[in-house]
Amino acid sequence: MGVDKSPNQDPRREADLVTSRASRNLVKWIVGVLVSIVVIVGLLIGLYVHSALQPLDPESKTKIAVTIPSGASTGDIGTVLQKRGVIKSALIFKFYVKFHNVPSFQAGDYDFTKADSFDDILTALRGGAMADRSIGTVLVNEGVTAEEVADNVAKLAKKNPRLTRAAFIAALKDDTFFNRLVKKYPKLLKSAQAAQGVRYRLEGYLFPATYTVDAETSAETLITEMVAKTDQVMTPYYAAIKQKGYSVQEVLTLASLVEREAVDETNRQKIAGVFLNRLDVKMPLQSDVAVMYALNTHKTLLTNKDTSVDSPYNLYVHAGFGPGPFDQPSEQSIRAVLAPKDRSLDYLYFVGNLKTGEILYAQTLQQHNINTQQFAADNGN
Asked: To pair with 114 at 20 to 30 A between CA atoms, which of 159, 275, 315, 325?
């Protein structure tokens, strides 16, 4: 007689069912755990994003200076803001900007606080509130020496202790700083780098203009701006300088003499012609401007002792251009050297009337002496 073995009574079948139910329960548990993790992570991310979007300190009134460089990307700006402690996350800033489709930002200097919201920051960066941190300006006049520039800079030292006269002069004498400038502006400064016996390598390269200064401006930063301006002005003339066989140092040296010898364009061009004619025949330039630079003083009349001073800058004694510029020349004087007048008239001498500004030119020493005598009374001789 047989035994009835129904499937429900099969031990293997029952084991499979138990295993299947356990597997489903395990999957449900894992899924539940994963869902919980996702929810928790999502909540944490949400809380972080929400936190990152809030002002870091709603009560703060302390201004934080931020400079946004030209060409900075959204990510770059976010990094700057995070490093300066204005926002919590550069990444959240980047996504926020992208989500709100902000079109563009303006480079420049800004003042933010930790109380600023993202909207406040974006409004400012789009041009709504650029900061003015200027503490004053430095005026470089045509014809002033580097030391006179240092004196003007020092007038702002009370507001910016980094701009003392000593700091400015030290930067002018810093060879490492100068060599960095040479790498940045090789066409401008290569010949200055090769010059021998100069007092200041950057004499003549601090272009006459007005420069804005803030509380963080250093002497090196200010000098770099002046040199950059000189390079900007000189750029259209580099080809002509090369074509004429001059160096930039030679052009600026002659221009610095011309700057102090005449005030109008025509006489600057004619005086430049006199200097170039003298150089052609290897005559000393005999400029009083050069002697006064050698003496490091200003005088109306020079003595024989003055014109005999032992200095490479004394162009009564030494022929040629001398070591380098004697002051900061204007663009007009630079143009005069590159486009002189009346060279074909072979003028080798000139003398000016100190009262009227009139200038007389001569081909011979005899005629020059007559011209000098004509102005003797007005010139205090």
From this structure: 159
